[in-house]
Specification:
The complex is a heterodimer of chains A (about 425) and B (about 280). By secondary structure, chain A is mostly helical. Chain A is built from 17 helices and no strands. In chain A, α1 runs antiparallel to α4. The longest helix of chain A is centred in the N-terminal third of the chain and has 39 residues. The two termini of chain A are about 40 Å apart. In chain B, α4 crosses α6, α6 packs antiparallel against α9 and α9 packs antiparallel against α12. The chains are: A mainly alpha (about 425), B mainly alpha (about 280).
């Protein structure tokens, strides 16, 4: 085993190989305490989790075999837990191999190994960041990562009303859900209709709120305008009121029979009442207007901040050179504002892309469309909600959730690659 | 002369625009306040300035025999405060390690957080629902709080890490030279300097659960466990408009404290977002 060549040893390799049984490599490196710890860890892992893992993986692969006895969804959950436990276990196992290998390497190079005392200090020093992130991270695993894995797996099952445990079993069906969404007419039509409106909604509502907020910020920021403080407070108000409350207010105001819009405002302006809640296109218009009301103050506040930081002499110089108001706006103000706020503007788009609250609370995604799973103003996220909560199309809903997440993640990565938080030089 | 004339026109137009916007902003708010003082229950008869205003709806809400409003208010406060404390604690720890330590898995951890913060956690609502059922945490406040805290960690960690990165590392290094331990540097050097961002994270994590509707609606079943928004929604949703005035009173009582809190801290929101989120 220890074929010693001229001046070289193979402690690293040997230790790593021995560590396939956790702890043995450490024994080989004469770090007995550490070896015992690894060995005990591995043994207790096997004893404690053996059954869970065994059952878990069986459940994960088969999703149960006997209807009414095996509950497919619970088996799926237990399977994911087994998966997470395994990954954590493998992490420790990999560390065991790495540790044996690196200490073996030290011996190869003729370095002295750390004493138990030094190891303890290293553990405290090196382990401190892990210790600090572990509470948050564990919670994240169970509340965020677990659900995501669950949804991903669910997208590949036929879990719906007709395959619903405990009476029936759920089965793996590969990418059938995705195929159905794009192949079966009713699904494809609904999907593209909803996607189309989601895109119109995202761009329409967000651009409207950005334009409005920016315009008002520039108007209020004129230096000879009086009463800036009070005006700013008024214009911030819609942001300060909880969105839930505002949306419900609007829902009442746009009510076709009783609401103030149809009863008071439109007649006062000499216009006819409109079917705000029953005609999809009117609901859409109302939604975009409402989102403008809800969203402009945030943009207003941010742009105001940027405007105040633009040095006055830039404008003075431009005035001396004979620039018009429009030129000053398009050549100085706009580029500076857009440069400073672009990343946040983009998050506004992704926010509206998933703006469930306004769609759901205003008119329930309605008006209803007979014979379709998506209602008139449903965007992807509210359609998913409807598929889950009312028509029990869990598998399809999960598949659509995956599609939606891919869109969001693509945008997010594209955007954040350019922010500074991400570009710090020692990001590793 | 023409310069002066121009200026007058420009300012008049500006004030006009602002006046119109002020009306648009105030109208819905005054309308809901007006509705809450209207006699009668339904939306149909309510006017912005009722002829004989009444406090009956407020009294009704505070009458524990007739309405669960006070219970809902307590539930909401309890959930929001606990969520805030847990979020601030775990976010401070996580953001600090990401900002100050270089450890294996750091980069992947950051990217994971970045992606997670983009996916709204109710996108996985089926999973949250099923998991809560499986673990018996359905219809408990604990389950809801855990979901809130977990959902808040990625975004706020990012926000806070961005801020902590701006606190010079020389400070902790010199403290280390002087023999300060990890915890001491964290509690006595860095955290006091991070107070502004701690305040921002605390406010975000208080207001978010207070204003959340959908997760609470999915997870909470029994009426005495409801949060404010779920309770109020149930009040109007059954037959829209029939209990509208009571709903209006309930909304006013939510909106006032939140709006006040918000207006006081509004400056920090903006600076916190721009500093942590983008400029780093």
């Amino acid at each position: 085993m220890e074929a010693e060549k001229v001046g070289t040893t193979k402690h690293a390799k040997t230790a790593a190989l021995l560590s396939i049984v956790p702890g043995l490599g450490q024994f080989y490196n004469r770090q007995f305490l550490k070896g015992i710890i690894f060995l005990v860890l591995a043994a207790s892992f096997g004893i404690v989790f053996g059954d869970i893992l065994n059952m878990g993986f069986w459940g994960l692969f088969t999703l149960g075999e006997i209807p009414k006895v095996d509950h497919s969804i619970f088996l799926l959950i237990d399977g994911i837990i087994a998966l997470i436990v395994t990954v954590l276990g493998l992490g420790v196992y990999a560390f065991n191999l790495y540790d044996a290998h690196s200490n073996g390497k030290k011996r190869d190079l003729g370095l002295k190994l750390n004493s138990v005392r030094e190891q303890y200090h290293n553990l405290i020093d090196g382990g401190f960041p892990y210790l600090m992130i572990s509470p948050g991270f564990l919670l994240l695993i169970f509340v965020v990562i677990f659900p995501i894995i669950f949804v991903i797996l669910l997208a590949f099952t036929n879990y719906d009303l007709y395959h619903s445990p405990p009476a029936k079993l759920v089965d793996w069906i590969g990418i059938q859900n995705f195929i159905d969404i794009f192949k079966i007419d009713i699904w494809r039509n609904t999907f593209f209709k909803v996607l189309g409106w989601t895109i119109v909604w995202t761009f329409g509502a967000t651009t409207f709120q950005i334009a409005l907020g920016m315009f008002l910020a520039i108007v209020v920021n004129q230096k000879d305008l009086k009463g800036k403080a009070i005006i700013r407070t008024i214009l911030i108000l819609p942001w300060a009121v909880p969105a839930f409350v505002s949306i419900m207010i609007f829902s009442g105001m746009f009510n076709e029979t009783f609401g103030a819009i149809n009863k008071m405002i439109l007649p006062a302006l000499g216009l006819d009442p409109q079917p705000w809640m029953t005609e999809a296109n009117w609901t859409r218009l109302a939604l975009i207007l409402i989102q403008g009301w809800l969203g402009f103050p945030f943009i207003f506040a941010m742009v105001t901040g940027v405007l105040q930081s633009i040095p006055e002499d830039l404008y003075e110089a431009a005035t001396v050179d004979g620039a018009s108001i429009w030129q000053k706006f398009s050549k100085i103000t706009l580029p500076l504002v857009l440069f400073a706020t672009a990343p946040i503007m983009i998050t506004q788009y992704t926010f509206n892309f998933n703006n469930f609250n306004v769609i759901f609370l205003f008119n329930n995604g309605g008006p209803a469309v007979p014979g379709q799973t998506a209602w008139g103003t449903d965007i992807l996220i509210s359609w998913i909600y409807r598929l889950t909560m009312t028509s029990a199309q869990y598998g399809k809903a999960a598949a659509i959730t995956m599609i939606l997440s891919f869109i969001i993640i693509a945008v997010a990565l594209w955007q954040f690659r350019r922010t500074k938080s991400f570009q710090e030089e020692d990001m590793m | 002369m023409s310069m002066k004339k121009n200026k007058i026109i420009r300012l008049t137009l500006s004030y006009l625009v602002i006046a119109v916007m002020a009306v648009i902003v105030f109208y819905p708010l005054l309308w809901i306040i007006g509705s809450s003082f209207n006699p009668g229950n339904s939306l149909s008869g309510s006017t912005m300035f009722p002829e004989n205003p009444t406090l009956a709806h407020y009294k009704h809400l505070f009458d524990a025999d007739k309405s669960d409003y006070i219970i809902w208010y307590k539930n909401s406060l309890k959930i929001s405060i606990i969520t805030m404390v847990l979020t601030v604690a775990s976010v401070a720890l996580t953001a600090y390690s990401f900002s100050r330590y270089r450890f294996v898995g750091r980069k992947n951890g950051l990217i994971t957080f970045l992606i997670l913060q983009m996916i709204p956690n109710f996108a996985a609502l089926i999973a949250i629902f099923v998991l809560a059922n499986r673990t018996g945490l359905i219809d408990t406040h604990l389950g809801l709080i855990l979901v809130y805290v977990g959902g808040q960690i990625p975004m706020n960690t990012y926000l806070m890490k961005g801020y902590l990165d701006t606190i010079p590392k020389e400070l902790d290094e010199s403290a280390k030279m002087d023999g300060a331990g990890h915890l001491r540097i964290f509690f006595q050097i860095v955290m006091p300097l991070a107070k502004p961002i701690l305040a921002v994270v605390a406010l975000f994590s208080f207001i978010a659960p207070f204003g959340d509707f959908i997760l609470a609606r999915i997870l909470l079943r029994s009426e005495d466990k409801f949060t404010l928004l779920v309770g109020l929604y149930e009040l109007v949703a059954k037959q829209f408009g029939n209990e509208f005035t009571k709903f209006a009173a309930g909304s006013v009582l939510i909106a006032i404290p939140i709006a006040a809190l918000f207006l006081v801290f509004q400056r920090y929101f903006v600076s916190g977002l721009t500093a942590g989120g983008t400029k780093g």
